[in-house]
Specification:
Blueprint lengths: L10 H12 L22 H12 L11 H17 L7 E5 L2 H14 L8 E5 L5 H9 L2 E5 L10 H7 L4 E7 L11 H11 L2 E5 L7 H6 L16 E5 L11 E5 L2 H4 L4 E3 L7 E3 L9 H36 L5 E3 L7 E6 L7 H10 L5 E3 L8 E5 L8 H18 L6 H9 L7 H11 L12 H8 L3 H15 L2
Parallel strand pairs: 2-3, 2-4, 4-5, 5-6
Antiparallel strand pairs: 1-7, 6-7, 8-9, 10-11, 11-13, 12-13
């Protein structure tokens, strides 16, 4: 069937087809997808957000003078986020499309503010989000990753201080890191940045909205926001633990002077003077209106209740994992993210555990080994997880038992050696397609029902080769 039908179809038929296509996706509610989605479990919240999105979508946030309602709502979102992370009267912010754009802009602002540095660098822990490597690639800022503590997976302030030099325009810390859910020692890292005259960005995309509430519930959360001297900027995603629809993050700066370098203006053409606060020009007002409506509906007390439910779920899951032979939680998570690793010598494969959980209706995200971090399975725990912990843990125990019965996935040493020797820069597109087919990734962009063997092959591939393989596969998916 053509992507564009010759004649238009009735709206009811179009929506029915859309529902049919969505039926094969991971569930976005019910707490069973433990990555990518953030589910509050609050009845009616999604419907409220959808209605607000529909009201705001036709408006264009490109011009606040044409659509002042969007500017007012953005200011409300910024004020709410700033209040949670210790922002003061001088704190300013920008609403972006997501955490990656917020991090990109933080790097861009740091680079643009230092035109005196010919070859700028940014120092970041090895656990920092890949968005910073994307920013390095886009903006010509060399990333200097620093190994983290191999037990706690937290940034090592001394090692980071040793990596900072006269070319450093930005230092990065996470609150928390995505892979292991731990908060870096922001105060110590801030001292290094201040001494070097560099900016410090705290990536609190995940934790910025929930960590302050966990602190109010008695969790020992170290300071990470603007209450820490030397913090220049903080990113907070509202489409994570503020439970807003996708497409809303806030980048906060300690003052307007620090933010100014991220703005773009161009009057050197015959049209309107282009003024951009973000990487985008035209921006739908839908996500802004939806986020504003969700915040107004839930309020501070509502978010405290959601944080309490999430905390209860995290603790129950954390404790339950200890009872499953062969599993452990990596590090000592500070927030709502857990990384499951194996405990000692085991006779099963985590990738198979992920497959078995998928069969049982759960999605746990595989994470490859990197540096001191072993292979793990990622769990993003949300408020909707509360009440389902018993089923999750029972299915997890059953999945481990099934994986143990199946035995570990073994990649032949000779094959692993051949893979390790491949140079991704020398392979042709046809050769990549052959490798993908041998790995079980079809030319039609489809995936096998079980991914353990595919992931095992990817795990023994050097990172650059893995990147190219998956990019080639992405090219098959999006034709």
């Amino acid at each position: 069937m053509s992507a564009l039908p010759e004649r238009g179809r009735p709206a009811a038929d179009v929506l029915a087809e859309l529902r049919d296509r969505r039926a094969g996706d991971l569930p976005t509610s019910g707490g069973r997808t433990l990555a990518y989605v953030y589910d509050s479990g609050v009845a009616g919240l999604d419907e409220l957000a959808a209605a607000a999105h529909a009201l705001g979508a036709p408006a264009n946030a490109l011009d606040p003078t044409a659509f002042p309602s969007l500017a007012a709502m953005e200011n409300d979102l910024v004020a709410a986020a700033a209040g949670l992370v210790g922002g003061g009267a001088e704190t300013v912010g920008t609403v972006t499309s997501g955490g990656t754009e917020s991090c990109l802009l933080a790097v861009l602002a740091a680079r643009e503010a230092r035109p005196d540095v010919a070859r700028p660098t940014m120092v970041l822990p090895a656990t920092a989000h890949a968005a910073f490597h994307k920013a390095a690639h886009y903006f010509g800022v060399r990333a200097v990753p620093v190994p983290v503590n191999p037990v706690t997976f937290r940034a090592d302030p001394a090692a980071m201080a040793a990596a900072v030099d006269g070319s450093t325009v930005l230092v990065v810390a996470s609150a928390p890191s995505y892979a292991h859910g731990v908060v870096d020692p922001v105060a110590e890292i801030a001292e290094t940045a201040t001494t070097a005259g560099a900016r410090l960005h705290v990536d609190a995309c995940i934790g910025g909205w929930v960590l302050p509430y966990l602190r109010r519930l008695g969790v020992a959360v170290s300071d990470f926001g603007f209450t820490v001297p030397g913090v220049s900027s903080v990113s907070v995603d509202l489409h994570k633990y503020a439970y807003c629809p996708k497409g809303v993050s806030v980048l906060l700066h300690a003052d307007a002077g620090l933010r100014r370098a991220q703005f773009f203006a161009s009057a050197d053409w015959p049209g309107y003077t282009m003024l951009n606060t973000t990487l985008q020009s035209t921006r739908s007002g839908g996500p802004v209106a939806a986020a504003w409506a969700v915040l107004r509906h839930l309020g501070d007390a509502g978010y405290l209740r959601l944080a309490e439910a999430t905390l209860a779920a995290v603790r129950a899951i954390h404790d339950g994992i200890r009872e499953i032979d062969g599993l452990r939680v990596l590090g000592d998570p500070d927030a709502t993210l857990l990384a499951l690793g194996t405990d000692g010598e085991v006779d099963f494969d985590l990738f198979t555990v992920a497959d078995e959980m998928r069969v049982r209706g759960w999605y746990l995200q595989p994470q490859f080994a990197h540096g001191a971090a072993p292979v793990s399975l990622h769990l993003t725990v949300t408020a909707a997880s509360h009440g389902g912990e018993t089923w999750l843990l029972a299915d997890l125990a059953a999945a481990v038992a099934a994986a143990r019965a199946a035995g570990p996935v073994v990649v032949d040493d000779e094959l692993a050696g051949l893979i390790a020797a491949l140079d991704p820069e020398q392979l042709t597109g046809a050769q990549f397609r052959t490798l993908l087919a041998e790995a079980g990734l079809g030319a039609d962009g489809g995936l096998p029902d079980r991914m353990a063997e595919v992931n095992a092959l990817l795990a023994v591939s050097p990172p650059r080769l893995r990147e190219r393989l998956l990019l080639e596969f992405l090219g098959m998916v999006f034709r």
